[in-house]
Amino acid sequence: MILKDSHQSTVTQEGELVIKIFKPEYEFHMDDYEKFKNTCNQFSEMYGHFPKIIECDINKIIMEKVEGKSFQDFRKESLQRDIEDQFQDFRKMQCLYFKFISNLFEFNLTYNVSLIHNDLHYGNLLINDDKLICVDIDSVILNRNPAENSFMSFPIPVFEHDAERLNHVYYTMLDKKQKELDKKQVEINKEHRNVISDLKEKLGKKK
Questions:
Q1: Which of 54, 116, 136, 186 is the most exposed place for a label (fewest CB within 10 A)?
Q2: What percent of the chain has pLDDT over 70?
């Protein structure tokens, strides 16, 4: 079954395996495929953030199939929920992402390697049993530089945009509610003044 077909690769599923075949000029270049596979699988076994790699070479990567809902789909569903639920969903996305980043830093420190995912975005991040799983494994890089840092901030501008949008919606709603309350209060005050005026008029007639 074909899952995705682009100018760069074709991704198919065969049973519990996902196979990514790279097209000419987009081959998967790696200095040591066995070391790459073993390092990724070690990280996956310890923390569960990558699918297990069965085989990889310049032409293909064969991985175990992973289930999950992408951040992208999770966010779309969240937009249909109440604003308070949207805040909780957003905090969950932040929490899962930074747990992954923390675990990756810990792994790199413990094993003196530089393992990163170079293409982190909402479509490549899956939520599975309250754990973040990163797909698109050919974007994982091993020991490109002794110290990597920029990769951890890839989704940050998107998080910032979403946070600003949520806060804008929230405070707009508060402002709208306050205006409605103010309008009701004006109507109540007007009604009170009318009642007082009627009472004064009635009392004046009795005199």
A1: 186
A2: 85
